[in-house]
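INFO batch 0412 | record 1 of 1 | parsing
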Amino acid sequence: MFKKIPKPFYYFLSVFLLLNLVQSYFTELIFDESYYWYYSQNMAWGYFDHPPMVALLIKISSLFFDGELGVRFMSCLLSAANLIVLWLLIDHPKKKDYVVHFFVLTFSMTLLNAYGFFTLPDTPLLFFTSCFLLIYKKFIEKPSLGLSVLLSIVMACLMYSKYHAVLVILFVLLSNLKLLKNRFAWYAVIVALLCYMPHFYWLYENNLVSIKYHLYERPNGAYSFEKYTLGYFVNLVAIFGLTFPFIYYALVKTKASSLFNKALLFLTYGVLIFFFISSFNRRIQTQWIIIICIPMVIIAFNYMLVNRTSMRWIYRLGLANLVVILYLRVGLVHQPLLFNVFYESHGNKDWVKQIKDEVGDMPVVFENSYRRAPMYAFYSGGNTSFSLNNVQYRKNQYSIEDTEEEVRNREVLYVSKYITDGTFDYTKTDGSVFHAKYIENFNSYRKLECIVEANEEKVSVGQEISLKVYNPYEFDIKLNTLKFAAAYLDNYKKTQHVIPILVSPMDATTTVLISKDTTNFTTILPKTKKDSLGYVRIVISENGLYFGLNGKPIPLQ
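INFO prediction complete | emitting tokens
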């Protein structure tokens, strides 16, 4: 199989890999990468936002290198390997004469290019999608137990990469429903599910936290055609750049001449239609549709080989894309090249150094920033940092891990936009100023759970409700250190109004929340002048900190 790859392909591939390695070394981390680096510091079978594959890649990278390359090394290797798999997926006998055109096509795809070195969940998703299609192609030619096992492993790797992988598997299955009668296909599904059992168990152990967040708890907004649906179409253009008319034209002109071509078309159109429909409910992020790049490389390149006009235009516009992308890639390292546009890979070492010079090894608590907390930990050399999430924000990995215990009862630098009497300020490269103050004995209890009785699935303003508070900590918590409030949310689960409430313990002698126990209270939901409210959640402030995310949103009648 690999012997059929021409030498020029390996020359271009080597340049591509070297470029990504150099880029990885000189480009500071972006915030998501630092967050996933934080994942990798405590390896698990799952994380709040994503399955664990991205953390595994970073952990392996760190075995070979330090710094940024210790985060991105495996991504560089996977992206290079991905191009090999894509090349193998193309059967046209003339392809070996158009190696340059293949690399121009793939390199000119903006996100496929970016994920050549950034380490994000989509990086392994792209690679394993290509592997899945290659094995599936062999499988439909001649099913066997060996291919069934390979298919199952790759499907599990897909799902360990990102939950969106279910779309890849689903739409390929829909393109060939005869697979439902194929015993080898069922073997693949069963083995894949067995391989995925550790993650299922992790979800069970963590109360389905990832599923609940993505399906129910994620904040949304009111529908806007410009931001949602029109924004979706802008994303469809952005992922291909200047070549987009000819790439989509190739898609339209391609017919389902074989089961494999049918799978490519079902996968592409399926993802496009799925997210088009989703655009009427939420804003579609560009990377959500990046999966289509894999089948579209195959479709577009195959069409180029039989249509000279498309080949000329895709090649020319691809070269123009390539120039722009190379310019932008340099701009990721040197900010002035981006016309004074500050990107998140600029200046992180500088602001971390400002704080590090001020506090030394003292822990730093960032309120409402799962982005800055891991970035500080990474560039400070592993100093303890923590994201304290309040009712104006959202839960994240810091909400379910034990980092809170690392800052408990210690003096910390506390960074928050709610601070008005800060004793220390630091300035980011873009000129934004952040305020901070010292807290001598920091104590937060963000894992306290406020539970409204199950039979009160909908509540009304002014209603008396029964409230349970569960203390998951290893120590008792004094009630006089806590304040309670009702946080009113709009129909899109964004906090609009926080009103303090009085809670009355069922047992009047109660003065503490007992460790690993539940305490019963009653309270009355206060009236509010705010309109268009859809939910309420009960929240807690501890030791003067801003109210947390202790209760789940409950619909208002």
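INFO post-check: The domain at 449-555 is CATH 2.60.40 (Immunoglobulin-like).
INFO record closed
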